[in-house]
């Protein structure tokens, strides 16, 4: 059955994708089987945490950790710690609670196509298109969190990774004020420590001079690995095209594809479709009596 434009691809990876996984992630049937067994054993020993031990679920953590089971367990522990620290924000998170932020406000979007390297491209409108009075920074984070939960189900995304495009067109003081130090720290901590996806690149576009105030908030929390993957382009889309082929970009960013005419409204049903995974994720982390 053909994949719908606003859906994710959850079928097993084909030969071409598995070759990338072998080359970049050490993934072979033998390595995968051993890593899954080892991670299951480590989880059994971790009496203070609860996570599913189903193979498809464990691959979410093993792939970004290059099939080193101990590294995958450390990531799971960091995720549990992040959930514990941000319990009021993330407890029992459900898509329907953020439905209006998805449907009525086009702040977070995902390209329907992948880029030339097979990566998912997440678009975040951080400038004039974002009204913090309508969608708070906390809601913005929850929407981003829900999207990442769905994205992690795609084998192609687990293997190829994701790219984030931050569009600051029309940024003003009202958005700068909403991007508080606490929000900045939470977001960067999540990206660096508690997001089981391969973040390959972050592109910052159309940023005005006032963006320096935003960057000053984020910069102290960014470690060298992430810093090396952040690129600033201003209004020069040709610089962006050195990383993402124009054939895979909409006209909004100097690309060959039609201008974007879709957004959260179209993607929301896809997120809601995977409510079972979201509900299950809400149960994972540190056991209650250990918190």
Automatic annotation (TrEMBL):
Molecular function, one GO term: phosphatidylinositol bisphosphate binding
Highest taxon in the source lineage: Eukaryota
One Gene Ontology cellular component annotation held by this UniProt entry: membrane
Pfam family, any one: CRAL_TRIO
CRAL-TRIO domain sequence ranges: 98-261
CDD domains (UniProt xref): SEC14
Name assigned to this protein: CRAL-TRIO domain-containing protein
